[in-house]
Write a structure and sequence with these properties.
alpha/beta
Length: about 575
């Protein structure tokens, strides 16, 4: 799909507009007819056409022809818009152009309807003799431009409560979030895609013959780009070709590393709306079932959990996985031939390349395997994407805002080897990375809490996650270190921004659970014996009761004897 068809009307029909304004149509010259005896078949055709025109009228015949031409154009758009494979000897580029979601008819406002009506009237314009002069190109696609809630809606005046006054309670905790009911949130799902600034056509490069001689980094899964190729990927243009994982094989998940069965791939391609994705590798976590999910969401949203063979065996033994390939609402997808030895790096594939695994999905919600989803996905999408008119949303870190501080924290916690972290941070510093300060506002943080990602699959957000994954492939797997570099490089060439919301808001819709290894080392709760029955209380005695004087006296005699004993002992020591 070209840029002309995406936003700006081309001048290909400007001459027709001029003729219509002048009220004069230039005659169309035709070759002089040769006087020959008409054939019998030609006479029959002419009679048939004249018969139709006699009863239907020329204008209606023209409209019929117009309808047939429009139907042919619509079928052609359907065929082209699905994305094509452009084959060459060694490189295949998979098209990921911005196109309308044709699964349903978009809602058209009055301005758009007037434009479409005018366009249709031009298509139906008749010449002097009543014939159709020409066919106009289709109108430019519509884009989702956001919305505002009605005046007086409680979410318009909603604000976060002040932090707790108790200084001892300063750790991370959830805070209130104003969600819409599921029915209202799902009804506000955009019918058309959001605008993608500058970038309209994104293709993914496939290479069979990998050249491993580059300056540093790379893998068979992500390729081995040179520094020049890396720099070119940040030069945002209308049409771009980038590496985005899966550089080998016929399609993502088939002979690429991170291999998936054909039946699973077919099911994943059927997901056209919203997908919720997660992953557990190495049986590292216990699968968490979402809560508070509406029946409508269970029927219309895809829930996919990616696991390796070790986790599959654990689920069959302890998690109830059977031939249905489902555990609760999760559809389990077993991944084989993992491309990396580092499990965290393997987890970045479904996390950042969701749009490649689900090529027909429009929106996705990623949650780490250790998280439990407790709010309906439609409510989350409405609150953090659609209401904000954003195509990408992620929470900021609850404590750290600076990449350099984040790198030091990773080294202190042993999250990655120090030399690799130092190399990556020094590389970014030479490219212009500076510590976070208020001078970067309205950017509120350089460090995300990357366990949740909410996004719309449009070219610009797809490019962002592709380039983010490429940094993870080239440097360390700590994606929080590379996040701001990719974001700022894209923002410098476009006006694209993302929504970084509060960490306490994230904790409102997901609950963090412990990893399996942590649970194994936790001290089990102590089991105490049942308490003995309490004895009956003694009766209260009056002040004149003789027992009241006897009991304390023995106590005083005993204590006084003890004091005398200590006194004698002290004198003996002094002597």
């Amino acid at each position: 799909m070209t840029g002309g068809s995406l936003g700006i009307r081309s001048g290909s029909y400007g001459s027709l507009d001029k003729q219509l304004q002048n009220g004069v149509l230039l005659p169309i010259q035709a070759p002089s007819p040769i006087r020959t005896k008409p054939s019998k078949i030609l006479k029959e055709k002419e009679t048939f056409v004249h018969w139709i025109c006699k009863f239907a009228g020329r204008k209606k015949v023209g409209m019929l022809l117009l309808f047939l031409i429009s139907a042919a154009v619509f079928v052609w758009v359907l065929y082209v818009g699905k994305g094509e494979y452009q084959e060459s000897d060694n490189i295949r580029k998979v098209n990921d152009s911005l196109h309308l979601n044709i699964s349903g008819f978009p809602l058209i406002n009055e301005v758009q309807r007037v434009k479409i009506d005018n366009w249709t009237s031009l298509l139906a314009s008749d010449g002097v003799d009543g014939t159709v002069v020409g066919v106009m190109p289709p109108p430019p696609p519509s884009y989702f431009l956001g919305y505002t809630l009605p005046l007086g809606h409680p979410c318009n005046t909603f604000s976060l409560p002040p932090p707790p006054a108790d200084k001892k309670k300063t750790g991370p905790r959830p805070c209130p979030v104003c969600y819409l009911p599921v029915e209202e949130a799902s009804a506000l799902m955009p019918k058309v895609p959001s605008f993608s600034p500058i970038l309209k056509n994104l293709t993914y490069i496939h290479e069979e013959n990998l050249i491993k001689e580059n300056e540093f980094g790379g893998s068979d899964f992500g390729g081995y780009p040179t520094l020049k190729q890396r720099d070119d990927s940040y030069d945002i243009r209308e049409t771009m070709n980038v590496r985005c994982g899966f550089v080998k094989g016929s399609k993502p998940g088939r002979g690429t590393g991170f291999d998936i069965g054909d039946d699973d791939l077919l099911e994943m391609e059927q997901c056209h709306g919203v997908v919720v994705a997660s992953a557990i590798f190495g049986a590292f976590d216990i699968i968490q079932q979402p809560k508070n999910i509406s029946e409508y969401s269970k029927q219309t949203i895809c829930f996919y959990m990616f696991v390796d063979e070790e986790t599959e065996a654990d689920l069959k033994l302890n998690g109830g996985l059977d031939e249905s390939k489902k555990v609760g609402v999760w559809r389990i997808v077993v991944v084989r031939n993992l491309p990396y030895a580092d499990g965290r790096r393997n987890g970045k594939i479904p996390k950042l390349l969701t749009h490649r695994l689900f090529p027909n999905a429009r929106f996705s919600l990623w949650i780490d395997g250790k998280l439990e989803l407790v709010v309906d996905p439609y409510q989350i999408l409405e609150r953090f994407l659609w209401r904000k008119n954003a195509t990408f949303a992620i929470s900021r870190h609850y404590k750290r805002f600076d990449v350099f501080d984040e790198a030091e924290a990773n080294k202190a916690a042993g999250k990655y080897d120090n030399a690799s972290i130092n190399f990556q941070v020094d590389f970014y510093r030479k490219e212009g990375l500076t510590p976070y300060s208020e001078a970067k506002l309205p950017i509120t943080s350089d460090v995300p809490e990357g366990c949740v990602i909410i996004r719309e699959h449009v070219p610009i957000s797809n490019l962002f996650t592709c380039l983010w994954f490429n940094e993870v492939d080239l440097f360390t797997s700590r994606d929080q270190i590379s996040f701001s570099t990719v974001r700022d490089k894209i923002a410098a060439k476009t006006n694209w921004t993302l929504n970084m919301f509060f960490d306490c808001e994230r904790r409102n819709f997901v609950v963090q659970k412990y990893h399996k290894d942590v649970l194994a080392h936790l001290t089990p709760p102590a089991i105490y014996p049942p308490p003995l029955p309490l004895p009956l209380p003694l009766p209260l005695h009056s002040a004149k009761d003789p027992l009241r004087k006897v009991l304390p006296r023995h106590g005083r005699d005993k204590r006084s004897g003890s004091r005398r004993h200590h006194k004698v002992r002290k004198e003996t020591i002094l002597s």
